[in-house]
Amino acid sequence: MIITVDREFGSGGRELGKRLSDALKMPCYDDEIIEIIAKECGLDVNYVAHMSENRIQMAYPLTVGRRLSIPSEVVQQSIKVEIAQNKLFERLSQQGDCVIVGRCADVTLAHLHPFRIFVYADRASKIARCQERAPEQENLPPAQLERKMRSIDRNRAKQHKMASNIPWGAKEGYEVCINTTDREIKSLIPALAEYVKNWFLHTQIAVG
User: Fold this and answer.
1) Which residue blocks in the chain are alpha helix, DSSP H?
2) In the chain, which end has fewer C-beta atoms inside a 10 angstrom radius, N or C?
3) What residue ranges of the chain have pLDDT lower than 50?
């Protein structure tokens, strides 16, 4: 079973992916992906994380009427990270069942027919969740948090658009879209885990 989780920033998709993997007794890969790539590429973890979130701008540094002056070395490293990430996804999928959070894994591993999940929520719920989980030193006001959420989600949508004809978050691209507004995520896991198991069971029967 390969499960991918796309999510709006602040919707709790990371928590949902981890809780689902625990319920199904399989590994979940999220920040671990960055750490593995950084080690394999000999790069700083924070640098790789920044590249992963901004690889569209790195690989295609264009603006209206002019080209941004991004050093060729940075572009090459961005491409190196992208290749390493895709190879890592293939390797992880070959090792066995797993949950992969974000990073367009649903597109990269489309040939393996993963169970694709999209997690979303309303503005108020996402802001509340971000405030609840934010480090003490990062106490952003709601307006600033909303700008951050919009920026990150726009970038995720752009990255997905580069790899797929199906828009990021469109129901046609997922087996399940989950609204976590005013919901305790752990309460959603038992039903979701059963649905995932039944989906893979019937998929295997259909293929067989």
Assistant:
1) 13-24, 31-41, 45-53, 55-59, 72-95, 105-108, 123-133, 142-163, 185-207
2) C
3) 56-68
